[in-house]
Amino acid sequence: MKILYCGSSSACFELENTSPYYAPEAYTVLLDGETCLQGESNVFSLFGLLPGRTYSLTVRSAGGAEECLSFTTESESCCVSVRDMGAVGDGVHEDTGAIQAAINFLPEGGRLLFPAGTYLSLPLALKSHITLEFAAGAVLLGSTERARYPIIPGAAADPANGGELPLAGFEGLEKDSYQSLLQGSYAQDVTIVGPGTIDGNGQNGDWWQDFDSFPAARPRVIFLNRCRDVTLHGVTVANGPSWHVHPFYCQGVRVLDCAVTAPKDSPNTDAVNPESCDRVDIIGCRFSVGDDCIAIKAGKIELARKYKTPADRHTIRNCLMEFGHGAVTLGSELASGIRRLAVTQCWFRATDRGLRIKSRRGRGKDSVIDDVVFDNIRMERVLTPIVINLWYNCCDPDRYSEYVWSREKLPVDDRTPRMGRFTFRNMECTDAQVAACYIDGLTESPIEQVELENISVTFDPDARPAVPAMQNFAVERCRLGLYLDNVRRVRLKNVTVRGAAGEGLVTDHCDSVETDGFAAE
Questions:
Q1: pLDDT tens digits for range 113-125
Q2: pTM (2 decimals)?
Q3: Catalytic residues
């Protein structure tokens, strides 16, 4: 057992084992000898702790084994209730002014407490060195009055020094955006904790309707622009107008034991999308949304040429992801590249795709994905467990152009992306439907290497056809085995595919295919 986070009023712990998301046994947690919760997942949290106090923690498994540790909460300068600053919390009265005033006047190291209640608010600006705590039963509810949401420019001119100040972005570009419900810019040491909820209220406004006609990009629930050392712990984030949590060019972001929820049919409601960030940990979370659960991004080619900031040092572990287009996605905005990514001990249920990499011509020469490992994953009812698609046809004005879809071998230039090494290992996938694995590299820039090791895929006998990847002229598939096209080196070790319709392994335009223990039943 180890401590993932310890603040002034909450703490997060992780049981160390090899079981994806769920602990091998149910367990009881005792705090100073008193039972405080029953758990079944590998990550659990404690709330309502006192600052600067040492606690004794015991975890007792159903089988009787015990593990103990002690921990000391951090000190703080103060704790202030938002109600004492004038917030009503009845869900009818608008509390924007009271909450923003409380944030503005909170001293460094202070904690702003939201007691149980519903706090209706327009967008709020975060600042450095503070904690927002949402107690059980507390809901920060986004206003549905779109006309009152400020529009933040993608970049503001600096008349004194020349140049510009980047402020907002969406879908891989610096773009004018409605201010997000919680928005931080150039802030550091920001913590958002508690068992309460931050609700974007997207379903009750017009955010999910005709949004392409809006004068600016839709807000996120939480948007962080060039922030440092931000922790989200325990909160539920729900019903975003678009993406829920969007760190943008940030350093040191932790999302621990959080939940993100939105209806399965809600548009572009990705759960967590870190973009061109360094050091991101997403651990012990539960996601169920209308788009990708996690989408790691690194901008379109304009941002890559301007800033050259890759997504680097990301860890995703012990998470449960349900519904949505993809569980863990890389791209498609990845023009600055993605490196040093580890996705381990996760459980996916009923997503369209499990591990999903998507790019296209035009992302550029810096769009290099390398040193990526996916390990110890369990999937249930995932339509296509593994997808690498270099022909992605969304989110760009030229999405239907011949440049995107042509299968001719085009010249390699500064617009051509490169895919490096991908390792998928120790995965059990049951009731797949569309394809076990669908990997489709570029004709002129094949994927360097794909390694599949200790993989088991079993198809649903009642599977229905669908397209495995979003590309022009996509063909529906049903119970397609392992399909790999334009990969320089393919290595399969201890891979089993059960219930495929037709061949279990199809490799086209692959220079080297090594199989050691491959079986198609």
A1: 999 999 999 999 9
A2: 0.97
A3: 291, 325
